[in-house]
Fold EF-hand domain-containing protein.
Amino acid sequence: MPQPVLRREAHLMATDPSSTRFEKLFDAMDTDHDGTLKAGTFQTLVRRLGRSGGMQKSNLEQSYHEFWTELMRHHGDGGYSLSKQQFVQALQALAKDTSTRGLIERMSNTVFDMANTGFEDKLSKDEFVRFFKAAGGSDDAAALAAFTELDYDGNGAISRADFNRGMKTYMFAPASSTNSSIVFGAV
Ligand SMILES: [Ca+2]
Ligand SMILES: [Ca+2]
């Protein structure tokens, strides 16, 4: 049985630049705008993203379920939902916990697989924009900005390596330079 991880002091967390990214992620995920996230929040995300169904959809459900379980473990106070502040603190604690690196990588890969509808192991601009809109984005300009941000080698497509690097940057970068929550499947 995994033990809850102690949370940091709130006043220390407030100075962490990643809190801005994680607050935005909360807002993108809280689609019913009730100020809380619950396990069911991720089912809504899967429904939005998972038009094709099948194996990829169940992999995504599994990844999000593991992610939620880890978030609640890092929250450590029990209960069934997280407020924005609780979500940000739990995600910051999760990001600092090296034992969750495998989970982060699996999530990145399953979200990538969901976005990738073609046969090649990369996202074209069209695939990416479709994925961005399914994830809640409405703005073509924002989709293209996120595409450019994630196309680290600038070859006009988002490879799996590009996408995974985007997820790592999102989770672990100290600076607030990367703001796109698309790597989580939510915009
Ligand atoms: Ca909600
Ligand atoms: Ca690329």
User: Anything to note?
Assistant: The chain has one domain: 17-184.
